[in-house]
Amino acid sequence: MAAKAMLVTGGGRGIGASVARLGAASGWRVAINYAANDKAATALVDEITEAGGEAFAVKGDVGVEADVLSMFEAVDRRFGRLDGLVNNAGVVDRKARLDEMDIARFERMMRINVIGSLLCAREAVKRMSTRHGGQGGAIVNISSVAAVLGSPGEYVDYAASKGAIESFTLGLAREVATENIRVNAVRPGIIDTEIHASGGQPDRVAAMRGLVPMQREGKADEVARAVLWLLSEEASYTTGAILNTSGGR
After folding, report:
1. CB 85 within 8 Å of CB 134
2. Pick the catalytic residue: 34, 155, 158, 237?
3. Distance between CA atoms of 105 and 204, rounded to whole angstroms?
4. Quick check: helix, strand or coil at residue 112?
5. 5-21 per-position pLDDT tens digit
6. Number of domains in the chain
7. Contact between residue 13 and residue 194 where contact means Cβ atoms under 8 Å apart
C-alpha cells in the first residue's frame, strides 16, 4: 500500500517548509506548493529526496481557482491519493491602521488567506470524503494568535482573516465529521519566520518577545510538530480543535 500523501500550501519556507520536512521524515509523501519562490521549493524537494523521502513541488496561487484545480490534479497524477492537507499559505502586510488601508489590500488579504483555504479544503474534501468514495483524511489550517488578539494598530485585516479561518475550521469539522475527515487548526504566536520581514517588520520578533509568557519566540519546527500530530492517527478523536502554539500568549 502506498504511503500517505499530503499537500502543504505555501510549503517552500517558514512553517510550511518545516511541516513538509517533518512530514517526509515521518513517512508522508509530500507535495510542496509555492507561489513564486521556485528555488526555495526545489531546494526543499532536493533535501527531502536526499534524506530518502518523496516530495515534489507544484506552483500555484491558492487564491486563483484555476491554480488550485491544477495543483490538486498534479497531486492526483503523482500520488494517486490525498490523506492530508495543510492550509499554510498566507500573507501579511505593512503595519497600518484600518483607516490607512485600501481595498486592494483587503482583497489580497482575504483572497489568499481565506478564499485560498476554502478552495483547497473544498478540493481536499472531494478526494478524502467517504461521501465521494474517499478513504478519509485530515485537514489542518494555520491560524494565528492574531485571531483572538485582533492586532490593533498593526493589521486588523490579517487578524480578521485568521478569525475567519477559525470559524471555517469549526464549521467544516462538524460538516464532514461523519465522512472520516478531521479538520483542526493550529494558532501560532510569535514564530521566527520570514513573514515578519515580508510585512516590513524584520525586527518584530525581538520587539514582541517580552509579551510572551515563555519570554521567547517559537520556532517553525515547534508549530510543525503540532501540525503533524493533528494529521496523525494519534489525534484520531480530535476534530474542530484550535491548538495554541503561542508560548502561552
Report:
1. no
2. 158
3. 21
4. helix
5. 999 999 999 999 999 99
6. 1
7. yes
Find the range with the poorest average confidence among 32-41, 107-116, 156-165, 197-206.
Answer: 197-206
Q: How far apart are CA 182 and CA 188, in angstroms?
A: 20
Domain hosting 18: range is 5-245
Side-by-side strand order, sheet with 242-245 = 54-59, 29-34, 5-8, 84-87, 137-142, 181-188, 242-245
- Cα separation, 50 vs 191, whole angstroms: 27
Q: pLDDT for 44-77, tens place per residue?
A: 999 999 999 999 999 999 999 999 999 999 999 9
Question: Active-site residue 158, yes or no?
Answer: yes
- Does the predicted TM-score (pTM) go above 0.90? yes
d(CA 52, CA 28): 11
Confidence of residue 118 (pLDDT cuts 50, 70, 90): very high
Q: State percent of the chain over pLDDT 90.
A: 86
